[in-house]
Amino acid sequence: MQEPVSFFTGFNPNDLWFLGEAALKTLWISILSITIGSVMGCVFGWVLHESKSVAGIILAPILDVFRSVPLLIQLVLFYNFAPMVGLDLNPFLSGVVILTFYTASLVTNVARGGIESVETSMRRASRSLGLTYWQDLFHVVLPIGGRTVFPAWIGVVLGVMKDSALVSVLGYVELLKASQILITRTQEPLLILSIAGAFYFALSYPISLYASKFEKRWAK
Amino acid sequence: MKKIITALLSIAALNSVTVTADTLDDVADRGTLRCGVVLDFPPIGYRDANNEPAGFDVDYCHDLAKSLEVDVKIMPLTWSERLPVIATGRADVVFGGTSDSLARARTVGFSIPYAIYYSQGVVNSKSNITSIDDIRGKRVAAALGTLPEQEWLKIAAKWGEENLYQSYQSENEVFLAVAQGKADIGLTTNTAIKPITQQYANLEAGPRMPWVADYTSIVGKRQDVTWLNYLNLFVTHQVRSGRYQELWDKYVGSDAPDLRIPGVMY
Amino acid sequence: MFDYNFHWRPVLKSFPDLIQAGFVTLEIASLAMLLGIVIGLCLALMRINMKGPLKWFAVTWIEIARNTPALFQLFFFGFGLGAFGINLSPFTIILTGLSFNCAGYLAENFRGGFQAIPVMQINSARCLGMNSWQAYTRIVIPQVLRIVYYPITNQMVWAVLMSSLGMLVGFKELSGETQFFASKTFRVFEYFAVAAVIYYVIVKIVLGASRLLAMRLFRY
């Protein structure tokens, strides 16, 4: 007989580190999908604004699907679909792919709103001053429209960061999954959930505070 | 965009060529065995103090990989994910106390049994449940997609008590639910009873469930008979070499059950 | 190139059950929204008009609801409260969780709405002989409702999508029912694909109904 194995062990300081690491993973998956998704969203928003007939008919309904089906269902579907076509994606990559498209579908609306918030007269004026189309887009529309929709974009960012918790369903060990694992092992749900909640709050609250300060400053 | 799509498609096409080849070759080519286990099933699968996978099934994964001379990638699964990962080809093999029911065998392939369990209840000490009949009118919990769930729902349907049944995502949520008083009895496996009742002061071993013993098999792709043959051979080798008894002793701590089924030729 | 055989027959067989579960989803989302609107209104008024503990209560509620994932909040109402011996049924867990979350988001929308109404109007109403209750219910709230109508619609869609988390706390709305069937038949992809379609239809119905209602409510 070997020495007895213990199947449950109490909460120890190491686990705090485990949760911290998981919080970094939450941050990492969010940053990755928000960055790519935002760039895609800006491009899509621009496409939808510029060519309302052709691209709109194809692109808009596709993006609409990502906004009208629960993220949880999207994740489960994609995770199960990818291997059928031979793509061997781990939970992290599957999560990134879906979160990216999800972000893009949300940012598209924001970006489009931003472009449309810049008055036509202003754009005409800039073109009359000799700016090319792209110069106008990057030096006039981006700074002015971007400022208007910045708070809305921050809203999307915070939303996606919290929604990244759903990737836990695929088994990716981010903050929420890590806390579940610890609950399983230590059987102390209240303590661990409180710590995980504090981590999320610490990730999200500063950004939302900054956004509301920014909004107030620009409202003046 | 078009280029990306064609590139993706060609990758997919390339992969699917290798997918249709058999798993044995696949694993050897890849150099890793993707092995699914359920980690909320102490002592068969759990996480140790360093949050690393451990347990009887996890060691079996390592043994199988060693026999194939490849690395192993442990994939933690929930109960209800065990068969889909095989059907969609995300894992090569699943250990995880999977009962070899005929319904499941229509979707995935099974090896010969590698471990035998029976279903047993774990009860809240306040619930006064000592026999099956005591469960009438009590709240029952089990993990989603497990054999106890399916068997219990048959009994519950007979009693007209399906509304008292509640499923959870994991076995540990079941234990937590019984300990917190959300349910009166949780249905689990005999091997889990000892560690669970040691962990919780207010949980006790409950009655053994009236259905037959739970013959659990290794799961592989249904179409891949050579792979299933290999898994069968692996099971017999584990027993022959004494490794089966050794691991059972380490994690469960008693004589390992006889894997033969009396009166049947395997 | 597919190495997967689709089986749609079991899904079709349980299709009526899934539709019924769709109604449960709609029901839970509507209930949560009703509670959310009432509580959100109270929280917004507390945050604007009160001082001391009541204000801080409202601020804490709003910030926690907005800065932690909805799934985390559900876990908290489930096993977190269970540690105190408070055991809610899965239905109550999802209803409390959704209402808690919606109330937090709606409160901020309402706050924005209230702040958009000039104080002057309340003063004028009081001059005309209305008491403060009348001024609020007849002058301010109708205008606020108009301002927040669109955000409320959005939140309703959000509530429908978020109710899918019921699956993870053992409640059988559309996602939970889907997962239950999928776990019995192992046809995960097929079931969730059908669920996705049903969600899409529900969301479109909600949006359409909201548009009709808007036409009726804001005629002048």
From TrEMBL, chain A:
It comes from the Bacteria. One of its GO terms (cellular component) is ATP-binding cassette (ABC) transporter complex. Residues 23-211 form the ABC transmembrane type-1 domain. It holds the Pfam family BPD_transp_1. It is a multi-pass membrane protein. GO terms for molecular function: L-cystine transmembrane transporter activity. InterPro entries: AA_ABC_transptr_permease_3TM, ArtM/GltK/GlnP/TcyL/YhdX-like, MetI-like, MetI-like_sf. The chain crosses the membrane at residues 27-48, 55-79, 91-115, 136-161, 190-211. It is found in: Cell inner membrane; Cell membrane. Its main location: membrane. PROSITE patterns: ABC_TM1. Keywords: Amino-acid transport, Cell membrane, Membrane, Transmembrane, Transmembrane helix, Transport. NCBIfam families: HEQRo_perm_3TM. Belongs to the binding-protein-dependent transport system permease family. HisMQ subfamily. This is Amino acid ABC transporter permease.
From TrEMBL, chain B:
Residues 32-255 form the Solute-binding protein family 3/N-terminal domain. Pfam families: SBP_bac_3 (PF00497). SUPFAM superfamilies: Periplasmic binding protein-like II. Coiled coil: none annotated. It comes from the Bacteria. Residues 1-21 form the signal peptide. InterPro entries: Solute-binding_3/MltF_N. Keywords: Signal. Belongs to the bacterial solute-binding protein 3 family. This is Amino acid ABC transporter substrate-binding protein. It comes from Marinomonas hwangdonensis.
TrEMBL record, chain C:
Keywords: Amino-acid transport, Cell membrane, Membrane, Transmembrane, Transmembrane helix, Transport. GO terms for molecular function: L-cystine transmembrane transporter activity. One of its GO terms (cellular component) is ATP-binding cassette (ABC) transporter complex. Residues 22-207 form the ABC transmembrane type-1 domain. It comes from the Bacteria. Pfam families: BPD_transp_1 (PF00528). It is a multi-pass membrane protein. It is found in: Cell inner membrane; Cell membrane. CDD domains: TM_PBP2. The chain crosses the membrane at residues 20-46, 191-214. The keyword tRNA-binding does not apply. Belongs to the binding-protein-dependent transport system permease family. HisMQ subfamily. PANTHER family: L-CYSTINE TRANSPORT SYSTEM PERMEASE PROTEIN TCYL, MEMBRANE COMPONENT OF AMINO ACID ABC TRANSPORTER. This is Amino acid ABC transporter permease.
